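WARN retry 2 of 3 for item q-0093 after timeout on previous attempt; input resubmitted unchanged.
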Amino acid sequence: MRTSLLLPAALLVLALSACGGGTPDPDPTIATPEPTATATGGGGPDPATIAAGIQVSTEGIVVFAADDSTLAEISIYDATSDVVAELTGIFGTDASVSDEPGGMETSPSRVYDWSGFSIIDYEGDTIMNTDFVFDVTTAAVGDIEIFTYSDLQIGDPLADAVALSDYATGFPGYTALGSVPIDPATVGEAGGLDLLIYTGVFGSGGTITRIVAPSPNWGV
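OK item q-0093 returned
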């Protein structure tokens, strides 16, 4: 994960020591100042509760806290409603919702979009038996960085993703990362096929413009 943007605040500890010996009592006409309370809470929210980064991978996402610890893990096989609820809490805002009619190779869908980080909830399950796919077109949502394998983000050189590719898509401007084998029997396909799901990385003008996970190497 990229370096956290937030660091724990330093704690300032004030040590007060009493003086010994035969010091006379203070003049009762002079007000003695009360000791100042010392802050012990760090002066800010706990970094372990602040989302700072989301890594998108073939099998789901990992949400990292500001101290680089894991805040949440979400699987591609979770229910869309559960994922939407969890991401709403992580981003601190509701998604914008739109309905898409679908096309010749895609079924109708409902899209939940948090300023470039989206869930596409297709009508029925996908051919991969998932309820949805992640669709990313931004490098960050507010202060939360969005990245995939090797910290690649929207706007990075597409060549960096191509260099890491483990499956040849056969299409220019589109490469695959993090390939995961799929048993054909689990997706209703004939045996003997080499089926994969992977993170699809799209590019235009030499830079990464879109990240979709999971993507299949068969059907649509």
